[in-house]
Known about the structure:
By secondary structure, this protein is α+β, with helices and mostly antiparallel strands. The protein folds into two domains: 3-285, DNA primase, PRIM domain (Alpha-Beta Complex), CATH 3.90.920.10; 304-438, no CATH class. It has helices at residues 3-10, 13-23, 47-55, 79-82, 97-113, 153-177, 180-187, 191-194, 271-286, 309-315, 322-335, 340-351, 360-371, 388-392, 414-426, and strands at 28-32, 58-64, 66-68, 83-86, 88-94, 119-123, 129-133, 141-142, 145-146, 195-196, 199-200, 206-209, 218-220, 235-236, 430-431, 437-438. The strands form six sheets. It has a five-stranded antiparallel β-sheet. A three-stranded antiparallel β-sheet has the order 1-2-13. Helix 5 (97-113) packs across helix 6 (153-177) and helix 12 (340-351) runs antiparallel to helix 13. Residues 288-295 and 433-450 have low confidence and may be disordered.
Amino acid sequence: MNYNQILDYYSREDVQRTLLKISGNREVAGVFKTGAYSTRPNTLLHNSDIITMVKSGVIEFHGSLEHWSTPTLLKETNYDQLKIGWDIVLDFDCDLFDHGKICSWVVSKALNKFGVKSFSLKFTGGTGFHLGISWKTIPKEIDYKPTVNMFPELPRKIASFLKNYVRDDLESALLKKYSPEELAQQTKQSLGKIMNKDGINPFEIVDIDPILLSTRHLFRLPYSLNMKAFMVSLPVKPENLEEFKPEDALPEKVKAIPGNFLDSGEEGEMEILITEALDFYSKTKSSKKSIERKRPEITSAIKPDIFPPCIKTILEGLADGRKRALFILLNFLKSVGWKWEDVEKFILEWNQKNKPPLPDSYIRSQLRWHGGKPKIPPPNCPSEKSRGWYEAIGVCKPDNICGVPNILIKNPINYPIKIMDSYTKKAPPQRNGKGEKRGNIETWDAVGTM
């Protein structure tokens, strides 16, 4: 967009009306093409204020999360004397529009579970989304203390709890649509970067950014332009999220509607979520980090007869979850000492047991991808913190070695190690003809060259 087009957009009556509506009691700053902010503190009171700022070179309008009695006095008076409320805005930061859309859907479902209905969604005009929760929904006191003075500590605790709460659902939702390899390619990251001990780290794909929740931090206002894409930062009704497309935010298509972002809610609506968030924060603060035992190195191929039940179930062939099973299987076989040429042959034979088999082109593309990649373990077993991948595709069938009823191993590759450790403890050391001890991982009968 050129200067005249930008000026024409902000000269529209509907756009001016919505910007003035959201700007009430907020500090507002303009953003220039260079990324620099206009003079602060400032606010918008009249239509002419918008036009004056645009004529000075402003392209975007950003507003504060805090509500102030007199925003223009922020430099002269203590913040607490001026603050009359605050909103929560979560920034879903991502490189791909669809990733932000998936995250918005997952967090929206989570809020509904806690009885929060009056939240707002807004496309940022780029690739991400903002989710807003109005001050109207926040209890005005907690433990007889005014919540108006609990910014930014309280909203940060809420954001931290929500991020932890939606982790597994976000991972599942991303993997339901894309394979791990596709997610790595889409984000231009290595597979090792987006993987951790629990599987895919969804926040390497789309982050829920708590940095926005800080004193006098500004967010792009609804119906402001985004200077990078020249799309409108457009509110989206949660029920319309699935059908929403970036082109819906083209300036010429948008009809600005006042009051459809951060303008609804009932006091106390957030009570349950806040209680859970504070409880989570208390437990997290008091808990001690556990030290994991270093996993023994496997130097020779482990035979299938001591594979864990989940892997054996996968090897029987699946009707659902075949792509996730392939990912698990490839990383498992690499981690338990198999040579790559044996992995390739084994995978091609296994795929014929699936119902139906995955396309041969897909199998070979995954083999090419994994063939040159560093060895990483498969996702962790289900635990209290993570439901894991294995339950999701119906292959988690623990036995007495996994631990019943509570799973005691952290990763499928620990299963054969546990069997071998048990064997080594029970069996006396054997000696070969040279008097050297046998019975370690390299020489035990369950281990051999495939």
